[in-house]
């Protein structure tokens, strides 16, 4: 694990580290809770996710983006087989091979990102669930072996964590997504409460009832996800603690605002995030 990487891989890891720093992600700061080799592996995984998201988010025609994602998928297949076409590929391949990351999760992420290229509608939660798995649970399940988890029993709570996080993202971004033609909340649920998307920003009693359903569902997935701690070594528990508590606090903030995610973006206060991050260090050291 501590052996020096060959020059091409070393340069690739440096590229990934630079991409992580450039992103200034709050969660990337949590990588510091991991030993150095695992931090580098998380850099590679994060870089892959970042480039994938950039293809989807950049301005341009949908057909062009879809073609780029297809090309990126083909490049991933080739890179896993040893044929690189992007600076991050050597680092990603070494990470996948060394830690036993199942490549299927990387392809699941690509499927999820592709689904966001068109206006989004889901009829039922059963339709929404696979999307949440692809864009969130698959990421977490790819992280688990890097965090030192080899217990197959971790898969179920790991999957639940991703669902909980993505359901929280969906609630936080209701207004922004609506402006982009994306409606992630299941149609059968907002129809049941007679609360179509055009009325969400008014936040009437019907919206409050629908929101209660969404928050309670997310809380059930958080409760299931908490069991992941039983299967992680201390550094893994530490980084999961930061992600879990940050997202759960985000959900709590949405609840405190009674679902007012339309006039001001919901964020975890900086002081609260600092407290969460600080609380993870004793976990990393095995004190908790």
Automatic annotation (TrEMBL):
Keyword annotations for this protein, in alphabetical order, are:
Transferase
One matching Pfam family: SQS_PSY
What superkingdom does the record give? Bacteria
Gene3D superfamilies per record: Farnesyl Diphosphate Synthase
What does the record give under GO molecular function?
geranylgeranyl diphosphate synthase activity; squalene synthase [NAD(P)H] activity
Q: Which GO terms of type biological process are on file?
A: carotenoid biosynthetic process
Which InterPro entries does this one have?
A: Isoprenoid_synthase_dom_sf, Squ/phyt_synthse, Squalene/phytoene_synthase_CS, Trans_IPPS_bact-type, Trans_IPPS_HH
Q: What is this protein called?
A: Squalene/phytoene synthase family protein
Provide the species name.
Limnoglobus roseus
């Amino acid at each position: 694990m501590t052996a020096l990487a060959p020059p091409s891989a070393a340069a690739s890891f440096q590229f990934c580290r630079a991409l992580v720093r450039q992103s200034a992600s709050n969660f990337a700061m949590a990588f510091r809770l991991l030993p150095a080799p695992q931090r580098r592996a998380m850099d590679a995984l994060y870089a892959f996710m970042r480039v994938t998201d950039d293809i989807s988010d950049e301005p341009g025609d949908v057909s062009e983006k879809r073609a780029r994602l297809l090309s990126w998928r083909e490049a991933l297949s080739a890179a896993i087989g040893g044929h690189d076409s992007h600076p991050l590929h050597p680092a990603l391949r070494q990470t996948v091979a060394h830690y036993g990351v199942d490549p299927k999760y990387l392809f699941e992420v690509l499927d999820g990102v592709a689904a966001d290229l068109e206006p989004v509608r889901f009829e039922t939660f059963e339709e929404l669930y696979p999307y949440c798995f692809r864009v969130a649970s698959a990421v977490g399940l790819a992280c688990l072996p890097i965090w030192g988890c080899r217990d197959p029993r971790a898969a179920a709570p790991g999957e639940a964590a991703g669902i909980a996080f993505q359901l929280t993202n969906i609630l936080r971004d209701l207004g922004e997504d609506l402006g982009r033609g994306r409606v992630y909340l299941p149609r059968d649920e907002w129809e049941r409460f007679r609360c179509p998307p055009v009325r969400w920003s008014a936040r009437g009693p019907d919206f409050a009832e629908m929101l209660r359903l969404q928050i309670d569902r997310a809380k059930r997935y958080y409760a299931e996800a908490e069991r992941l701690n039983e299967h992680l070594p201390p550094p893994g528990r530490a980084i999961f603690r930061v992600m879990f508590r940050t997202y759960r606090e985000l959900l709590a903030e949405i609840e405190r605002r009674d679902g007012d995610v339309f006039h001001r973006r919901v964020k975890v206060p900086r002081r609260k995030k600092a407290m969460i991050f600080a609380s993870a260090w004793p976990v990393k050291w095995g004190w908790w």
